Amino acid sequence: MAAGSWKRYNAEEERFVERCMEAHMAGLPAPLRTGPALPSWPGASDWLRYLVPGEMWDGVPGGDGLVPWKRVCCPASYTNHFDFADHMPALLHAYLHTQRLVRVRLRDRRFSMLLPGAPTHAPFFQIDRLTNRWFAIVSQGRCLPVAESEDGRSLFLLDRRAAPRFADSPVLVADTERLFRVEPVFYSQKTAADLIDRLAEPVFGSFREMLTHFCLKNAPRGEGDELSPFSRSRSEAPPSFDWESWLTPEPSADEAAPPQRANDVDARDLATHLARIQEKIALCRELDPGFFIRGADWHHHRMDPMLLLEERSRFENAQGCVLPEAYAQFLQSVGNGGIGPDQGLWRVETSDPQVALVCGRTQALDENRLRRPFPHRRLWNPRMSAKGSVTEQDYYSDQQISGTVFLGARPNDAGKTVTLLLVVAGPEQGHLWTDERYAKMGIRPLSRRGPYSFLAWYERGLDLTIEDIQQLYEAYYRDVQKG
Asked: CATH 3.40.1580.20 occupies which residues in the chain?
């Protein structure tokens, strides 16, 4: 079937979107029409998705690496890309498939929102990020995220619950923290769509009305002296923190770790560590406004809302486990997921067996997974044999990672997924392990250095991220200066 036969929008919708974007761009202040120039590094277009590709440059990059950009219209371009295409009104299809913009900021006296940009080298990444970030609400709540507020505190949704296929629909706004706190419910209840009425309020009668309001009736006037949102601070990075005096010696992979005492975590010391970590998280966002570092294009150097004390109690009681204190205080003081080592930190609720099953992070529903102690004290990677003591089914069983919460994931050198684990039940409580069974490397210890193991691992990851950001920007400026 030809690609054009999948077209969801008509010529009138295409012309309307183009008129809106023309009016918006005509009055947009110059700083908001500048962004980092996409560098010439091999493969850069695959992951620097917020940068300005060459065909959108409206001039040459300056010494700061920023370049003015122009809107590109591509009415002949179409792919049936979206996983949630049937949720999407035709007018939104028209915007995403015909307009190429780096970033669209819509403002009035009440709202300041970021409509997903669609640069030519990654036109669907930003809408994908929104729909995947709020996957549970899209799939169960039948509401489609269409924009975020600039500060990330509000989410704008198209209410698709009663809308005919491809028809326009009302625009709602919801507080992201409230959505975040109830998001796990959307994974487990088929009636969760009813929650939307309590969490979101209508703000526009349709997506068309919203574009008309911001682009045609309240178009920007080209005034203002604000900086480009991609302007980089010159703040100095602090030295890496030396954790050695807070940690116990690391045992070898084939040795059991000595017993640790959770009450060795001192509340005053813990508060000092957490405050320092929060400062480094803020610095990452300041140093990397272009989201150069891998993973930042998804988490934007932000933390999710903090875990409330009652949410911690509810999780521990429901799952029959006790979260290690240093980790729990991090969740309660810094944030429950977000920026972190490798590709970011997952929220603790993703380890709930029901949520993990729906998200594809576990193979079977085992309601007692977190109640049972973690079964390993040493590196575990036995040879699988149909006749031996460990069959393939045993090797890949979720029981091998009982008593652990998922911290995140990263690819190994072979491109296989490695899952990062924190032990919450058993003698290894508080220690970090990796699940590398899909790379045939078993379950391996990562950091077993006492009750501060998680914080030391996390902050070292931040220190490495800051170093990587600095090196990336130095390379970027050299590339820009070479022309």
From this structure: 3-217
35, 159, 196, 437, 447 from 257: Cα distances, Å: 50, 52, 47, 21, 10
| Contact partners, residue 233, CB within 8 Å, separation at least 6 | 286, 287, 289
Instruction: Report the C-alpha gap between 187 and 477 in whole angstroms.
Output: 44
The one-character DSSP state at 10 is -
CA dihedral 440, 441, 442, 444 (to 10 degrees): -160
Kindly report the number of other CB atoms within 10 A of residue 251's CB atom: 16
| % of the chain surpassing 90 pLDDT | 68
- H or E stretch at 202: strand 200-204
CB-CB neighbours of 392 under 10 Å: 10
Return d(Cα 293, Cα 223) in angstroms, integer: 32
Top pLDDT among 306 and 369 is at 306
Q: How far apart are CA 193 and CA 216, in angstroms?
A: 33
What is the percentage of the chain residues whose pLDDT exceeds 70? 93
Q: What's the maximum distance between 2 C-alpha atoms anywhere in the chain?
A: 75
pLDDT bracket for residue 1 (50, 70, 90): very low
**Parallel, antiparallel, or unpaired for β 72-73 and 99-100?**
antiparallel
Considering the domain delimited by 3-217, tell me its CATH architecture.
Answer: 3-Layer(aba) Sandwich (3.40)
The pLDDT confidence band at residue 4, using thresholds 50, 70 and 90, is: very low
